[in-house]
Amino acid sequence: MVPLITNYQSLITRYASRFWILDIGSWIQSTLNACHAKGVVEHSLQGKSMPGKVVKQIEFPGSKRFEIVIYDLLYEPTDAIVNAANSGLSHGGGVAAVISKAAGPELDEEGDRLVAEHGPVPVGGAVVTTAGNLPFKGVIHVVGPRKGDGDEEDKLVCALRSAFDLAHERGWESVSFPGVSSGIFAVPHDICARAYIRAVNEFFSELPDSSLSLIRLVLFEGPLLGAVVAVMD
User: Fold this and answer.
1) Domain limits for position 75
2) What does the DSSP 8-state code read for residue 98?
3) 77-89 residue pLDDT tens
4) What is the pTM of this model?
5) How many structural domains are present in the chain?
6) Tell me, what CATH number does 23's domain have?
7) Tens digits of per-residue pLDDT, 139-158?
8) 159: closest CA among 214, 111, 215, 121?
9) Residues in CB range of 63: below 8 A, 6 or more apart
10) At a CB cut-off of 8 Å and minimum separation 6, what does 50 contact?
11) Across residues 193-222, what is the average pLDDT?
């Protein structure tokens, strides 16, 4: 079983150390495939076990579910993952850099084309690209607010709703998202926590018949997780 990476910096370091011996994307893909083959990753929306430690869970009508999970986003068994991006889709740091490196150049190339054709993604907006070497149907890039933008909570709710709506439009059943705006963009954790929960509640309330039935907030242990749990309590 491949050990979970405890933080994104160690993940980058671990992958970078392999650049000289093989293509990173191929290595990640083969590793994930091996995990699936050995049953490390179990994916089902009908009650079977899901990976990671579920810290909190909210059930919605129609067998919809929101989970807060301690896990590694790249190992998620969902149809798609969300990337915390900037308006130019230049993935230079944080979770965006990790996803970009793992996915390979195809993700960056498609993002560059989208920005060239349509302009920068506005705050609160989202776009979908290929997942490249990662085993997802797509990566949804959302642009959350930065600290000091004003109305950060509402803008963050809008960004996540944009992501969930894109998943819904594509008929996807499950999506995982990280702590958008909580890292480099420095939005206070309590604001982020409220926004995450609001976005999920609003989506499931407004689209109860959506194909999207499982949304997972994937975090590592730390202050942000504590803030989310506190809001839910």
Assistant:
1) 8-232
2) H
3) 999 999 999 999 9
4) 0.80
5) 1
6) 3.40.220.10
7) 999 999 999 999 999 999 99
8) 121
9) 45, 213
10) 42, 43, 44, 67, 69, 77, 216
11) 97
